Amino acid sequence: MPTATAVFNGKTIAKADSWETVEGSIYAKFPPSSLDKSVFSVTDTHTGCPWKGEASYYTIKVDDKEEKDAAWFYPEPKEKAMNIKDHVAFCRLLLCERRSWADAVADGNKVQISTA
To answer: How far apart are CA 108 and CA 68, in angstroms?
Structure first.
């Protein structure tokens, strides 16, 4: 069975056997139970999407590396997006290609998402 894994600064910060995708994107939406919550802290940042609703953001910190607003989730999504409620996507600066993985690079930090 395929798994989705998110790694930041060499540490696995999320791993799941099932996840959600949106708009055919490889942005894996990790279920909240798959997160290592010790490395996530909620920020005051919010953005809006016309069909998903208002997103909230997490800062990720592992050892001496920190990336503000590197992950987002929809705590109260609109009706058509209820399948991603509280699921987490990583790094708004994700450099994405249509294949089974993507690397995110922001300020020298890297989140690797693998769905193999």
So the answer is: 13
Q: Are 44 and 54 in contact (CB under 8 A)?
A: no
Which residue reads 């949106």 in tokens?
22
Residues 39, 59: Cα–Cα separation, whole Å: 8
Separation of alpha carbons 78 and 64, rounded Å = 36
3-state helix, strand, coil in the chain (%, to 5): 10, 55, 35
Instruction: State how beta strands 101-106 and 88-90 pair.
Output: unpaired
Phi, psi of 28 (to 5 degrees): -70, 135
* pLDDT in the model for residue 94: 37
What pTM did the predictor assign?
Answer: 0.76
Spell out the residues 6+ positions from residue 77 whose beta carbon is closer than 8 angstroms to its own.
52, 53, 84, 85
The predicted-structure confidence for 20-70, as pLDDT tens digits, reads as follows 766 655 456 788 999 999 999 999 999 998 989 999 999 999 899 888 888
